[in-house]
Amino acid sequence: MVIGASIAGLSAARVLSDFYARVTVFERDDLPGEPASRSAVPQDRHLHMLMARGATEFEGLFPGLLDDMVAAGVVKLENRPDCIYLGAAGHVLGTGHTLRDEFTAYVPSRPHLEWQLRRRVRDIKNVEILQRSVLEPRYEPARERVTGVLLDPPEPDADPEFVAADLVVDAAGRGTRLPVWLKQWGYQPAQEATVGIGVKYASHAFRMPDGLIQEKVVVNGASHDQSLGLGMLFYEDRTWVLTTFGVANIKPPQTFSEMLTLVDELLPDYFGKALAQAEPIGKPAFHAFPASKWRRYHKLERFPAGIIPFGDAVVSFNPTFGQGMTMTSLQAGHLRRALESAVGASSDAQLAREFNRATAKTTFPVWMMNAIGDVTFHHAKADPEPRWWRSAGNLFDQFLGAAETDPVLAEWFLRRFSLLDSLYMLPPARIFGRTVVHNMRLWLNEQRAQRRGGGAARRGGTVRDVRALQLP
Ligand SMILES: Cc1cc2nc3c(=O)[nH]c(=O)nc-3n(C[C@H](O)[C@H](O)[C@H](O)COP(=O)(O)OP(=O)(O)OC[C@H]3O[C@@H](n4cnc5c(N)ncnc54)[C@H](O)[C@@H]3O)c2cc1C
C-alpha cells in the first residue's frame, strides 16, 4: 500500500508491483486524466527541473518514458550546452562549448512528468490508484509492526475504514505525520536536520515567439550579494515558466512586469529584449519554503516493521537546486534492492532498516553540499552546522570563479549539478589542481594588465572580475 500518488508514490508503486500481488495507492487529491496542476501539489506551478540523472532513473523504472515525452513535445537537449544558461552563486558557467562527454537533458513540466508516470502506473495490472484520504496507519504493539491503514470515512458520521497491508509506503510528502505516529507508538523521534533557507517563490507562465533565444533552461541562483534569483524553462506545450525567488525571506517580485525587471537585472541584455515580446498567461503563483528538512530515520535504533518513509517524507531539499524528484528516483532503486535482499528474510523490520540506510547514503552528499552552499551564499542557518562548512563554501566559490572561463571545469560542474557521475560535489585532485592553475593564470594576467595600466584599479576582488579583462 502507498500513501500519496505524487512523484514518490508513483515511483514506489512501480517498484512494489514487481514484489507484491496487489498494490493500492491512496491519494486524497483529484487526479486529472491529462497533464494539469493539482491543488495538493502547489509546487507544480513553479519551475521544476528534471536533472539528467533523474531522467535516466525514471526511464529505468518506466521504459519508453523519455521517447514518449519527446513525442509529446518535451524538449530534449542532446549535447546542447548552448541551450543551457547556468548561473550559480554569482558565477555564470562557461558551458557554451562542445562537451567532451555526452550530455542529454529533458525539460518536461512538472504536471506533464507526473501525468506520464501516473498513466503508466495505472496501466500496471496489479496496481490500483484510489481517491481516498489516509487517516493514519494501524500499529500493532505486540508485533511492533504496522498492519495497514485507516481511511478517512467518505461520510462525516461514518467510521474510518481499515485496509490491511503487508507493507505501507509513506509517500505523503513533506507534511507526513509519520514523526507524530512514531511518537504515539512509543518510538524515539528521528533527529531532524534543517537548513533555514527562507525561500519565497513567485512564478508566471508566458508565451513568446519562437527563436528569440536559443536557451531552453535558464538558471540564475542567488548569491552572497544578491538574495534574488530566477529560472526559466521551455515546456512541451510551447509555454515558458518564469520563476523568481528570494532567499533569507526576501520577497521576490509579485507581478509579471516586476519579474521582467529582475530578468533585466540578473541576465544578459538579450534575455530582456526577448522577454519584452512575452505574453503572460493567467495569474502569478506563490509558494514559501521555510527550511530544507532531513528526517534521519536511519539513526533510530528501533523502527517499526511494515512501514517505509519515502520521497519528500524523508528529505525535502532546497527547491532552488532542483533535486527533489531526482533524489526520489534514487530512492526507488533503494526500495527495489531492499525488497530483493529481504525476500526470505526472517524479519521485515530489516527491510525498512536497509532502505533507510541506503537512502541516507545518497542523501548525505547532496544534503551536505546544499547546506554548505546555503550557509555560505544564501545567509541560511543550518542545524547542525559544522564550522568547516563556510571555509569549504569559500573554496568552492573559487572553483566556480574558475569554471566561468575554463570549459572543462564548467562541464564538470554541469554534470555534478545534474547529479551525474557522482553525488559528491567535491572536486577530485585533477579538477582541484586545474582550478588552482587556472586561477593563478587569471591572477597573473590581472597583475600584468594592471601594470600596463589597462585594468581597473581594484582592492581585493575575486577572480571573476578578471573575466572582463580576458574575454573579447
Ligand atoms: C517550490 C518547489 C519547487 C521545486 N522544484 C523542484 C525542481 O525544480 N526539481 C525537482 O526535482 N524537485 C523540485 N521540488 C521538489 C519536488 O516537488 C518533490 O521532491 C517531489 O514532488 C516529490 O515529492 P513527493 O512525491 O514525496 O511529495 P509530494 O509531491 O508533496 O506529494 C505528496 C502526495 O501525497 C498526497 N497525500 C498526502 N497526505 C495524504 C493522505 N493522508 N492520504 C492520501 N494522500 C495523501 C498528497 O495529496 C500528494 O499528492 C520542488 C519543490 C518545491 C516546494
Helices and strands, with pairings:
Layout: E1 2-3, H1 7-16, E2 23-27, H2 52-61, H3 65-71, E3 76-78, E4 84-88, E5 91-92, E6 104-106, H4 110-122, E7 127-131, E8 134-140, E9 145-151, E10 161-164, E11 168-170, H5 178-184, E12 191-207, E13 217-220, E14 228-234, E15 240-246, H6 256-266, H7 269-275, E16 279-296, E17 307-309, E18 315-316, H8 324-342, H9 349-377, E19 381-383, H10 388-403, H11 407-417, H12 429-451, H13 463-470
Parallel strand pairs: 1-2, 1-11, 2-7, 4-13, 11-17
Antiparallel strand pairs: 3-6, 4-5, 8-9, 9-10, 12-15, 12-16, 12-19, 13-14, 14-15, 16-18
Helix pairs in contact: 1-4, 1-8, 2-8, 6-7, 8-9, 9-10, 10-11, 10-12, 12-13
The chain binds flavin-adenine dinucleotide (FAD).
Flavin-adenine dinucleotide binds next to helix 1, strand 2, strand 16 and helix 8.
Please explain how this structure is put together.
- By secondary structure, the chain is α/β, with parallel strands linked by helices.
- Among the domains are: 2-80 and 110-191 and 294-372, FAD/NAD(P)-binding domain; 428-472, no CATH class.
- 36% of the residues lie in helices and 23% in strands.
- It has 13 helices and 19 strands.
- The protein has helices at 7-16, 52-61, 65-71, 110-122, 178-184, 256-266, 269-275, 324-342, 349-377, 388-403, 407-417, 429-451, 463-470; strands at 2-3, 23-27, 76-78, 84-88, 91-92, 104-106, 127-131, 134-140, 145-151, 161-164, 168-170, 191-207, 217-220, 228-234, 240-246, 279-296, 307-309, 315-316, 381-383.
- The strands form four sheets. Strands 4, 5, 12, 13, 14, 15, 16, 18 and 19 form a nine-stranded mixed β-sheet that branches. Strands 7-2-1-11-17 form a five-stranded parallel β-sheet.
- Helix 1 (7-16) packs parallel to helix 4 (110-122) and helix 2 runs parallel beside helix 8 (324-342).
- The longest helix is centred in the C-terminal third of the chain and has 29 residues, at 349-377.
- The chain is globular, with a radius of gyration of 24 Å.
- 48% of the residues are buried.
- It binds flavin-adenine dinucleotide.
- Flavin-adenine dinucleotide binds at residues 3-9, 26-29, 40-41, 43, 46-49, 133-134, 171-174, 201, 287, 289, 311-313, 319, 322-326, 328.
- Residues 3-9, 26-29, 40-41, 43, 46-49, 133-134, 171-174, 201, 287, 289, 311-313, 319, 322-326, 328 line the site of flavin-adenine dinucleotide.
